[in-house]
Amino acid sequence: MKQKVIWDDPAFGGSGRTFAPVMLRLLGQNRLRQFVAEQVVFASTMSDLVDRMARGQFIMSLGPVLTGLLDRYRDAGVPLDIRPLGNTPELGAYANTGASNIVVIKNRPHPHATRVFLNWYLSKPVEAALAKAMGEDTRRTDVPQQVEAAQQRLPGIKYYDAQSEENTPAARKAQELIAKFRGKSG
Q1: 133-157 pLDDT per residue, tens
Q2: What are 8-25's pLDDT values in tens digits?
């Protein structure tokens, strides 16, 4: 079975980049090379990935959560059976913050205003509303979970956060290896 996985191109930012270090950790360098060479087609746009999954051209995608992105197909009556694999240790136990990151700039002009804003933003009512609107979970335990049980964090498991600053070197290494495997070094 050749080229049955479509991957949101990890050469760019976004969900594909998140999977690069996870796949390297799961497979190791040699098996990742083989996986990239034999199984993967890289999508340059999220819409291409979504369209090709909806058309049944691939059995698996590495990229964005497709739930909301497939609404136009569901609305058109296209039958879809696309499910997440989960994030247990044997599947990489990774955490993904998506676009839900807060960045605070050092030496900002109004540190107290920043603190007030962050306290409001991280409050229970705002976190609950954001989680519901985005269909994503929050780290708050007093807010209802939004994602399917198979995607929720399991207690007692240390998750690998590919988007954390401490894991940036691993993400870059994985991106470089994948580029090299694809013959796109440089």
Answers
A1: 877 778 888 998 887 777 777 788 7
A2: 998 887 778 888 888 898
Q: Report which DSSP code applies to 76.
A: T
Q: Is 94 helix (H, G, I), strand (E, B) or coil?
A: strand
Q: b/e per residue, 113-129, with b = 16+ CB within 10 A? A: eeeeeeeeeeeeeebbe
pLDDT of res. 34: 94
How many CA within 13 A on the CB side of residue 127? 17
3-state secondary structure of 168: helix
Query: Residue 179 and residue 169: Cα distance in Å, rounded?
Result: 15
Q: What are the start-end ranges of the E strands in the chain? A: 5-8, 40-43, 60-62, 94-95, 160-161
